[in-house]
């Protein structure tokens, strides 16, 4: 597996359809994103980092990891990034109701969906070790 740094295809590939003033972010054109990524995903060895999952085809993934954060920690983290108002409230509420985890469970086979805590630097290191372990096991099982 190789690590490749790629530009943000959302911005460089013109894969957005306007700008959401309320959330202060580009509006993703989901169909164009999937079309753009489809060929790259066939190559394999790709990690997709996104805050949702139901737009991506199940065939792309061998594992789906949902990072979970304590609501207080998430609020502080997002506030320090400049999130305010509805954007801040909706993100925290999404975590409270496990929205992304539920989306993943509905969109993909339950066997490939996993949750990991993401509250502390120690969690980050532990998650990295766990993910590397999964990758190594997958490679052994499929090579």
TrEMBL record:
A single BP term in Gene Ontology: rRNA processing
GO annotation, cellular component aspect: cytoplasm; nucleus
Transmembrane regions listed in the UniProt entry: none
Localization per Swiss-Prot or TrEMBL: Nucleus
GO molecular function term, any single one: ATP binding
Enzymatic reactions: AMP + ATP = 2 ADP
Pfam families registered for this protein in UniProt: AAA_18
Keywords linked to the UniProt accession: ATP-binding, Cytoplasm, Kinase, Nucleotide-binding, Nucleus, Ribosome biogenesis, rRNA processing, Transferase
PANTHER family the UniProt entry points to: ADENYLATE KINASE ISOENZYME 6 (PTHR12595:SF0), POS9-ACTIVATING FACTOR FAP7-RELATED (PTHR12595)
Protein name: Adenylate kinase 6
Taxonomic lineage of the native organism: Eukaryota, Metazoa, Chordata, Craniata, Vertebrata
